[in-house]
Amino acid sequence: MSKSNESLMLRRQAAVARGVSQIHPIFVERAHNATVVDVEGREYIDFAGGIAVLNTGHLHPRVIEAVQQQLQRFTHTCFQVLAYEPYVEVCEQINARVPGEFAKKTLLVSTGSEAVENAVKIARAATGRAGVIAFTGGYHGRTMMTLSLTGKKNPYAAGMGLMPAGVYRARFPDALHGVSEDEAIASIERIFKNDAEPRDIAAIVIEPVQGEGGFLVASPAFMGRLRALCDRNGILLIADEVQTGAGRTGSFFAMEQMGVAADLTTFAKSIAGGFPLAGVCGRAELMDSIGPGGLGGTYAGNPLACAAALAVMQVFDEEDLLARSRALGERLMGGLREIAARHSSVAEVRGLGAMVALELCEQGDPLRPAAGLVTRIVERARDKGLILLSCGTYANVLRVLVPLTVPDEQLERGMALLAECFDELA
Fold it and tell me: NCBIfam families, per this entry (predicted)?
């Protein structure tokens, strides 16, 4: 019996909880590198990368080989019961790659939300404080604690009531919308004055480049001021690198470009090339502030995912994917600026490395977000065989997360299709 996207969508609607969204009404049959083929045999260029999970592309041969080899050995023991070397080796390699000239240790878990939750647990245990400061537009997960940190209620926390207390919201710098770096720092000082004393704040959590928030980039100057503020007040700085990590921004971790190091760094998404792996890396003394049994999980640091992560890091080194990320970023930014030059709806092109986006507004007015136009462009691009994603507080930002391994000709084709969509709709 042949399958169709339409028939599978009907089955999905009958069987899957409504709260699980789906951007494109497509069911995938197979994929390779930056190409996806649906159940009806149609090919698409993948500019979404599983939401920044596939920096090394779909089914990278090195990753698949490593997982197949591990599959012949064992698939699970629970690291807390019977340990295995790949877990330890992943931690060693992450310790070496996370910025900071200090001794580090790493914890492995399965998802980005888990990583952020555990970073907060570690910060609270290490400081003896409970409060956390996060930023407007930030996205840190959908578990209860991370929903408190995530700066967007709808749809992530709609109808769920109040989230856990003790989280305070500062403003993320956004020049396009009138939030200067001075104002962002002042908003933290206002928290200290109005809501919680510095001695009650365990950590400040920040994405070096906001993901769901619209690819807003924190400057090195701002990150330096944030680091100094934390140091003055005994507050830990947590860098959420779930989306920015594993080479997306042109360095393995975006904080390498910020001039300062975080105390704790979270990672996930592309670190294991499509297999579920995440973690927290930080100063050794902080990571050791929780005793045995206080961290971990049944599936945390799964052997198959660890094998995949080791292969991903090997691919980055062997194929020089950091240089490729920077080169891709230049090409993408150039292409988006060419589009912006022809269309007044583009209010801003921004990004870091190959993490790039453009914000659409009515006649370029930041006060009039053009979410409807973004939706139409995403749909028209899909009709043409290009998979895109939107993001931003008002869903008016188009983002590009194409695999870093995409062939040049396919990248050019994808950019040409995107330009066609603007010419037809914008």
Answer: GABAtrnsam, PRK08088.1
pTM of the model: 0.96
What is the full DSSP assignment across 364-388? G-TTSB-HHHHHHHHHHHHHHTEE-
Domain boundaries, the chain: 5-59+320-425, 74-318
Ordered per-residue pLDDT tens for the chain, 426 residues: 679 999 999 999 999 999 999 999 999 999 999 999 999 999 999 999 999 999 999 999 999 999 999 999 999 999 999 999 999 999 999 999 999 999 999 999 999 999 999 999 999 999 999 999 999 999 999 999 999 999 888 888 888 888 888 999 999 999 999 999 999 999 999 999 999 999 999 999 999 999 999 999 999 999 999 999 999 999 999 999 999 999 999 999 999 999 999 999 999 999 999 999 999 999 999 999 999 999 999 999 999 999 999 999 999 999 999 999 999 999 999 999 999 999 999 999 999 999 999 999 999 899 999 999 999 999 999 999 999 999 999 999 999 999 999 999 999 999 999 999 999 998
Pairwise CA distance, residues 101 & 259, whole Å: 12
Return the CATH number of 74-318, one of 3.40.50.300, 1.20.1560.10, 3.40.640.10, 3.40.50.2300: 3.40.640.10
- If one counts every other C-beta atom within 10 angstroms of the C-beta of residue 271, the result is 27
Q: Is 213 left (phi over 0), alpha (psi -120 to 50) or beta?
A: alpha
User: Which residue bears the tokens 């001695």?
Assistant: 199
Calpha distance 131→202 (Å, rounded): 5
Q: Tokens 């198959």 belong to which residue? A: 304
Closest CA to 103 of 279, 285, 290, 292: 285
Residues sharing a CB contact under 8 Å with residue 420, sequence separation 6 or more, in sequence order: 384
Phi-psi sector, 165: left (phi>0), alpha (psi -120 to 50), beta: beta
Measured at the alpha carbon of residue 408, what is the angle toward residues 407 and 410, in degrees to the nearest 5? 70
What region, left, alpha or beta, does residue 3 occupy, with left being phi > 0 and alpha being psi -120 to 50 degrees?
A: beta
Name the CA dihedral angle for 5, 396, 210, 147, rounded to a multiple of 10 degrees.
-70
Q: Name the DSSP class of 244.
A: T
